[in-house]
Design goal:
The chain has helices spanning about 5-20, 25-40, 45-60, 125-145, 175-180, 210-215, 215-225, 245-250, 280-290; strands at about 65-75, 80-90, 95-105, 150-160, 190-195, 205, 235, 255-260. Helix 7 (about 215-225) crosses helix 9. It contains nine helices and eight strands. The chain is globular, with a radius of gyration of 19 Å. The protein has a six-stranded mixed sheet, with helices on both faces. A two-stranded parallel sheet has the order 6-7. It has about 300 residues and is of the alpha/beta class. It binds zinc ion (ZN). Zinc ion binds near residues 107, 128 and 162. Zinc ion binds near residues 128, 162 and 267.
Length: about 300
């Protein structure tokens, strides 16, 4: 190697060390998605949701999180339903916090199927639930292996997001509403809810309530994605989506949702792993890694 080439090589090594972010393992993440689906449908009251809770808790235990189970009861359509939010904390001694959230319950009804006889059949929820949980679990492994310089991380796996009636906001997001109503800790600096981000044809618009409440956080996340070359993040505000970020916003948290709401299999029996891709999980996962491990 001559001196010039060696010098260029050295510069390359130095510059690659300067942005030495951990890398998000897309295959690990996709395995978390598949494993949740292998447990079966995971709606409140099902055997699958119990197994899914165990799956999340077992993984969080392996990744050394401090875990708290937040149990609650809601009344929906005159029926009492038990819910459990799973709270995980990494590096609780760090004062600057980022909160990450995703719901893990799946919808008990495939009520967006054209065939009305299928409307009472529960969905598998590969994208609508498993994708967000999969990304959080892979992040948990990364965070447990390497302490971020600036931020301690809290995660919430929300229950009872997806039993709502269309057009009636207060019937959705019951786990995050309970979490927000009972929130007593200092507020995190940033909170990001991820939902439905596994679609193989990923397209993530800015969400109206997120942008209205936390324009700087939306811009920051979209800029990180842009720097990573992820053109799946689109700079247009399209939908108003009442998701698990909304109850957080309502108690004054700097919260946004990252969601791809253009998913043809939404609330149908077609929401299966083959509609999702490891790459899509990585687009959101690596963006979160770079947000968490930034040096400012
Ligand atoms: Zn849903």
């Amino acid at each position: 190697m001559n001196k010039l080439i060696f010098f260029l090589f050295l510069m390359l090594v130095i510059s690659s060390c300067a942005d030495n972010y951990p890398s998000f393992d897309v295959n690990n993440a996709f395995e978390h998605l598949q494993k949740q689906c292998e447990l079966g449908v995971r709606y409140p009251g099902s055997d699958g949701i119990e197994l899914c809770r165990d799956y999340i808790i077992n993984n969080l235990t392996k990744y050394n999180a401090e875990i708290e189970l937040q149990k609650f009861t809601v009344v929906l359509n005159g029926e009492e339903i038990e819910g459990v939010n799973i709270l995980a904390s990494f590096y609780p001694q760090m004062s600057r916090r980022i909160l990450l959230g995703a719901h893990y319950d799946t919808r008990p009804w495939a009520d967006k199927e054209e065939d009305a006889t299928l409307h009472k059949t529960p969905i598998l929820g590969a994208n609508d639930a498993a994708s967000g949980v999969a990304v959080l679990l892979e992040l948990a492994e990364i965070i447990s292996a390497q302490q971020p310089q600036q931020f301690g991380i809290d995660m919430v796996f929300f229950d009872l997001e997806d039993m709502g009636a269309y057009g009636t906001n207060e019937t959705w997001c019951l786990g995050s509403s309970y979490f927000a109503d009972n929130y007593t800790k200092p507020k995190p600096e940033k909170a990001i809810v991820i939902d439905m981000i596994g679609d193989a044809d990923l397209s993530i618009n800015m969400e109206y309530f997120s942008y209205h409440n936390s324009p700087n956080l939306v811009r920051e996340v979209w800029e990180i994605a842009d720097q990573l070359g992820y053109n799946e993040f689109k700079s247009r505000i399209v939908n108003r989506i009442y998701d698990d970020h909304y109850p957080l916003i309502a108690i004054g948290i700097n919260a946004i949702v990252v969601i791809d709401f253009e998913y043809p299999s939404w609330h149908t029996l077609e929401d299966t792993p083959d509609k999702c891709s490891p790459h899509s999980l990585g687009v959101v996962g690596q963006t979160m890694v770079n947000l968490i491990y930034q040096e400012k």
